[in-house]
Amino acid sequence: MKFFLATVALAIFSAEAFTFSPSTPHSLALFGSKSTTKQTSREKWIDSRGGTAAPASESGPSLSTNDGGLTYATLTSPNGSTAKVYTLGACVTSYESGGTEFLAVRPDAKMDGSKPISGGLAFCWPQFGPDSGLEGLTLQQHGFARNVDWKVSSTTDDSVTMTMEPDDYIKGMWDYDFTCEYTVSISDDKLDTSFKVSNNGDESFNHQAALHSYFKVSSLENLSIEGSFKGKEYIDKMDDASKKTEERDALTITAETDSVYMGVNDPVIVDSGTGKKLSVETASGWEDCVVWNPYGNEGMGFNEFVCAESVKFEPVVTEGGGSWEAKMSLKPGDL
């Protein structure tokens, strides 16, 4: 019964666009409608973001700059598996293992810093969605973590740690004393991620978190998504946010999809076209999953990816001096 009520409370969530009514109860405030439009133009976003790439440490050998001027780290495992992590948004844009690329960057993505990167493992923090009206969660959509350049604090051949702390841009929106630390490491058989939020002040704050994860597929007709979906309640945003019970053993994408699954954090992306699968293994923190695809949208490259997002919907209250951590791994396998 508690799960049923929690699911209903999240019924107006949308992974892409949101609205909020001041009379909405606490949990409902996290979600909204597809009809909400972008709040700021790209030019305003560039101006407000300000500055240039955050300084990177010189402790690692693998920092590069793309044609658009963005800094990234390339990680390599002993067997040649690779990952690419950009300082803009601490976004992992590539994970290749055994000759197969497992992450997707949308063809309409801007890789010059003019907007957040649309693809890979994209950060949403300290807010997932729009201004919710809750204390500390009245920011621009998806918060600011994906907008700013994180500092590279350390690198090795197979790992990178990036940090984000308040600057004038952030303090103008969210005046709390915090440190976010994100470590990505690669080994021969998996990619590990660890995200830690530390409250350095005396005052507690609320936050949400998500990895808006884009997984590459050979074609949607070759895709199925396995995991603990069957029997779970979910919100179907493409059907007036109606509450349903998932009856399928594995999910497929045959229409525009935006579904909110509470209590699911183990999706497995199965691609019969490549003969590969990718397991999302959660150790802590991430509790929920959003499955999203803009079916039919050629500009977004809909047939080349599916989003199975790792999410913490219910706001976390992190006390002064406290911390919160989420760990997730991507593990490839053969069918």
TrEMBL record:
One of its GO terms (molecular function) is glucose-6-phosphate 1-epimerase activity. Keywords: Signal. Residues 1-17 form the signal peptide. One of its GO terms (cellular component) is cytoplasm. It holds the Pfam family Aldose_epim. One of its GO terms (biological process) is carbohydrate metabolic process. Residues 41-65 are annotated as: Disordered. PANTHER family: APOSPORY-ASSOCIATED PROTEIN C-RELATED, GLUCOSE-6-PHOSPHATE 1-EPIMERASE. This is Glucose-6-phosphate 1-epimerase. It comes from Triparma laevis f. longispina.
